[in-house]
UniProtKB/TrEMBL annotation, chain A:
The protein's Enzyme Commission number: 2.1.1.256
Name of a matching Pfam family: THUMP
Provenance organism: Piliocolobus tephrosceles (Ugandan red Colobus)
Family: Belongs to the methyltransferase superfamily.
PANTHER family: THUMP DOMAIN-CONTAINING (PTHR14911), TRNA (GUANINE(6)-N2)-METHYLTRANSFERASE THUMP3 (PTHR14911:SF13)
Keywords of the record: Cytoplasm, Methyltransferase, RNA-binding, S-adenosyl-L-methionine, Transferase, tRNA processing, tRNA-binding
Protein name (database record): tRNA (guanine(6)-N(2))-methyltransferase THUMP3
UniProtKB/TrEMBL annotation, chain B:
Gene3D superfamilies registered for this protein in UniProt: 2.20.25.10
Organism the protein comes from: Piliocolobus tephrosceles (Ugandan red Colobus)
Highest taxon above the source species: Eukaryota
Residue ranges of coiled coil: none
Protein name: Multifunctional methyltransferase subunit TRM112-like protein
Family the entry assigns: Belongs to the TRM112 family.
Phylogenetic placement of the source organism: Eukaryota, Metazoa, Chordata, Craniata, Vertebrata
Membrane-spanning ranges: none
MF GO annotations: protein heterodimerization activity
């Protein structure tokens, strides 16, 4: 998070600089730059629009409008808080809105509609959003610089005859620069490599100096921007396709701005979102989705961090709560909790040693990441990893405040058949360890039929208060929010005539 | 694995009563079996978490690591920074890296490898493979 703080300071410095220049250039403009209000749009996981709106209200103080197009929210902020927008934890991608048409009348014939789009490009108020985009790009450059340095580092490692693995990993676009950091820092443990690393660090500084020289050269020369247009169209009554709209709109934008069109290596990404009669034109502020933060070691079913944040927000953690994820997998949910809710204690558990390994590695890489940024010698996070079996948890009865977990759907992990045994056993064990009355559980699953059946047998201990329908990897899944009833846990052997748990009839 | 986590763990064997607290046995063969990691001191958290943990268990366990806490505390002690600091040190900063947890009743032991507790019975492990 610290680079965002540094970026904020940079941003404020930039803002002041722009203030001075704008006052000199346009004296007729009475409103100063710092009061410039912009509308920002954000894509959020479907179903969590309300939680995202709550987060925006809490962190930025602005109210949100949730659009008819599912999965997007819009809010108005002043340009100064642009850096804080990047700190939002429940959004995937951000864009600045150029113009919004609530009820756009599409003509009937395709050619006329496309001509309208071409004319539209010239009529839109581009200046303010482009200013915002420029400010945004200035502190994104810092992140891009680090990526380039890491790539240089990997090349030098190859030259030294080191592992080729690092280069292969670098090629994969999924891994952010942080992945490489953690991998390099694992090397620190080995004393033999420490010497080589010290020479590499020297090269690192040298290459970063080269970078700063290059970038300053770039800024002095006027650059032709490269752009591309992405169109998302949803609705039945349109006579055109998104490709045609993007093509014609892009052509008009190119004529208007004289930018170069480049599909892969672009600076500006113009978004054209069409949903029935609602048309929104925007400029993207994020290149890669923000949802893959924190995690460096992925598993087969790693949950998006934005979804994990949404789920944690639903259970409303109070300070000093004990939060347990008994089927954590790669630990996405506890790690998100440990970074955002630092005044709670998180325990992550799984029955698979590979998963626990990945979770422990993710925690370790998160620690090293914060170590580099904040320069503190080995600080801990309020999170622990254990390998256990959820059907028989080694926890005291009534000791846990909140349980948040992603149940195996039965598609990629486990099987639907096993779920019929697993879900009731899970719910029973979770009801044992949760504190009666105040305990909560937030459970994500796609196998809703099995879960509903399992829950119906547990009505005396769990009460369902909310269901949120979400889209996880194309599957329609539900997040169930349950509250533990005041009834204390009774061991099954003491209960008479319990249905469904007996394997045989007596 | 921290002492805070240890405070919540108990033996989950079917008929084992009194399997709490689990005894900690450190691995003497490894070089670094206990690590002390710094952590932000959150006063409110320590105050509130004290009501959730079993204090006697914490007192005895801390003694094993050479930390002497007060035998019992009153609400006055909750305001004392020094006392809260010592609790914070015991709960959060001590990390058991190599060792094992042993149930005092049934004497089953679970290893702690590289800071992670492995609380799995071996026979259940085999059961999962046969099921597939």
């Amino acid at each position: 998070m610290c680079d965002i703080e540094e970026a904020t300071n940079q941003l404020l410095a930039v803002n002041l600089h722009e203030n001075q220049s704008s006052v000199q250039v346009t004296e007729s403009d009475l409103r100063s730059e710092s009061e410039l209000l912009v509308t920002i749009g954000a894509t959020v996981p479907t179903g969590f629009e309300q939680t995202a709106a709550d987060e925006v209200r809490e962190k930025l103080g602005s109210s949100c409008k949730i659009s008819r197009d599912r999965g997007k929210i819009y809010f108005v902020i002043s340009v100064e808080s642009l850096a804080q927008v990047h700190c939002l934890r429940s959004v995937d991608n951000l864009f600045v809105v150029v113009q919004e048409f609530q009820d756009y009348q599409f003509k009937q014939i395709k050619e006329e509609v496309l001509k309208d789009f071409e004319d539209l490009a010239g009529k839109l108020p581009w200046s303010n959003p482009l200013k915002v985009w420029k400010i945004n790009a200035s502190f994104k450059k810092k992140k891009a610089k680090r990526k380039k340095i890491n790539q240089n580092l990997s090349k030098e490692k190859i030259n030294n005859g080191q592992e080729v693995k690092i280069n292969q990993r670098n090629v994969k676009k999924e891994f952010t620069s942080h992945a490489l950091d953690s991998h390099i820092l694992d090397y620190y443990e080995n004393p033999a490599i420490k010497e080589e690393v010290s020479t590499l660090v020297g090269d690192d500084l040298a290459s970063s100096k080269d970078e700063t020289d290059e970038s300053s050269k770039e800024e002095t020369e006027p650059q032709v921007l490269k752009f591309r247009v992405t169109c998302n169209r949803a609705g039945e009554k349109h006579c055109f396709t998104s490709n045609e709209a993007a093509r014609d709109f892009g052509g008009a934008v190119q004529d208007y701005f004289k930018w170069k069109a480049d599909m892969t290596n672009f600076d500006v990404e113009v978004l054209l979102n069409i949903h029935d009669n609602e048309v929104i034109v925007g400029i993207a502020l994020t290149e890669e989705s923000l949802h893959r933060r924190n995690i460096t070691h992925f598993g087969p079913t790693t949950l998006r961090s934005t979804l994990a944040y949404g789920m944690l927000r639903l259970c409303d953690p109070l300070p000093y709560d004990i939060i347990v994820d008994p089927m954590c997998g790669t630990g996405a949910i506890p790690i998100e909790g440990a970074t955002e809710w630092t005044d709670c204690f998180h325990i992550a558990g799984d029955n698979n040693p590979l998963a626990v390994n990945r979770a422990a590695n993710n925690i370790a890489s998160l620690l090293t990441k914060s170590q580099i940024k904040e320069g503190k010698p080995s600080w801990g996070l309020p999170i622990d990893a254990v390998q256990w079996d959820i059907c028989n948890l080694p926890l005291r009865t009534g000791s846990v405040d909140i349980i948040v977990t992603d149940l195996p759907f039965g598609k990629r992990m486990g099987s639907k058949k096993r779920n019929w045994n697993l879900y009731p056993a899970c719910l029973r064990e979770m009801s044992r360890v949760c504190i009666p009355t105040t305990g909560r559980a937030v459970l994500l699953t796609q196998d809703t039929k099995c879960f509903a059946k399992a829950l119906s047998g547990m009505r005396h201990v769990w009460r369902k208060v909310d269901t949120v329908w979400v889209n996880v990897g194309g599957l329609r899944a539900a997040v169930y929010v349950l509250i533990r009833t005041p009834q204390a846990f009774v061991h099954p052997s003491e209960q008479d005539g319990e249905k469904g748990t007996l394997w045989y009839k007596e | 694995m921290r002492l805070l986590t240890h405070n919540f763990l108990k033996c989950n064997e079917e008929n084992c009563t009194g399997g709490y607290p689990l005894q900690i046995k450190l691995d003497d063969t490894s070089s670094e079996n206990v690590k002390i990691l710094e952590q932000d001191f959150n006063k409110e958290f320590v105050k509130n978490v004290l009501s959730k943990v079993d204090y006697d268990v914490l007192y005895n366990t801390a003694k094993q690591f050479g930390i002497s806490l007060l035998f019992s505390y009153t609400s006055q002690h909750l305001e004392d920074e020094g006392f809260l600091n010592s609790i914070h040190h015991a709960l959060f900063k001590i990390h058991i890296m190599e060792g094992s947890l042993i149930c005092p009743q049934c004497h089953v032991s679970f290893p702690i490898k590289d800071g992670t507790l492995i609380y799995i019975y071996i026979y259940i492990y085999i059961y999962i493979y046969i099921y597939f």
